[in-house]
Amino acid sequence: MNLNEQIVLVSGAGRGLGAAIARAFAGQGASVVINYRRSEAAALALAEELGPNAVAIQADVSDREDARRLVNDAAEAFGSHVTTVVNNALGDFSFNGDGRHTIQSIPWEDFQGQLDVSLRGALNLIQATAPAMENAGFGRMINIGTNLFQNPVVPYHDYTAAKAALLSLTRTAAADLGPGGITVNMLSGGLLRTTDASAATPEAIFDLIAQSTPLRRVTTPAEFADAVLFFASPWSRAVTGQNLVVDGGLVRD
Question: Where would you tag: which of 54, 120, 169, 234 has the fewest CB atoms within 10 A of its CB?
Fold first, then answer.
């Protein structure tokens, strides 16, 4: 299915990387569902910016019934089922190495908060959208990960653990859903310049990462979003269960 034929649901798309991903799909003519939890004003503004083929829908994807309502509302808005899911939603988090919890001080509740959104939220959307995709014989599940479990330049324990679990789900879900024509892949980025989540990152960290990459710069949300398009496009039809690192070559997997 070409990108301009797809109905793409991007969770956590009201701002930051999710908004960049929504813009990238809209730029290719796809119909885009901008999911948000609390960023109503930003999500509505983005939907207006992207035009009639975009709609903003509030839902907490960590809640199973809310996720199902989101998928049903998306199908009603566009007259057909969601063909592509981008699991981008992030629990409350700030990439601030100076303010992070160390392993000696971090409470389990921080881990649970990240797992609830990154892992349970992805599972909820996969379960809500997979039946219609299987009936159509086509579907794309794209999970957003991190390079931090390969290169923990700053040990964000809770965030990294949740994304590592999401990679495991990516691989096991690919095995289950492949016979139905559904691919499941992950893209893992590093620090992005700049999103709301990375705004608290000290400039010295940006400089360190830039100098550590072959490209000598930090990847932007728009550059990362371009790579997401590949996993939704016809060119990736034989690729599933994979993790593509998009960080300017910092991690060479």
Answer: 234
Nearby residues of 159 by Cβ (< 8 Å), 6 or more positions away = 93, 114, 118, 146, 148
Count other C-beta atoms under 10 Å from residue 119's C-beta.
22
HSE-CB of 40 using CA atoms within 13 angstroms? 3
Q: Quick check: is 159 catalytic?
A: yes
Of the candidates 95, 156, 159, 224, the residue annotated as catalytic is: 159
Model confidence pLDDT, tens digit, residues 92-131: 877 777 788 999 999 999 999 999 999 999 999 999 999 9
Q: Give the 3-state secondary structure of 94-120.
A: CCCHHHCCCCCCCCHHHHHHHHHHHHH
Alpha helices in 137-202 (DSSP H): 157-177
Which tokens sit at 28? 């290719």
How many other CB atoms sit within 10 Å of the CB of residue 135? 12
Distance CA(232)–CA(229), nearest Å, equals 5
**178: pLDDT confidence band, cut at 50, 70 and 90?**
very high
Q: CB under 8 Å to 235, separation ≥6 — which residues? A: none
Q: How far apart are CA 76 and CA 18, in angstroms?
A: 22
**Maximum Cα–Cα distance for the chain, whole Å?**
51
- Angle (CA) 26-220-228 rounded to 5° is 45
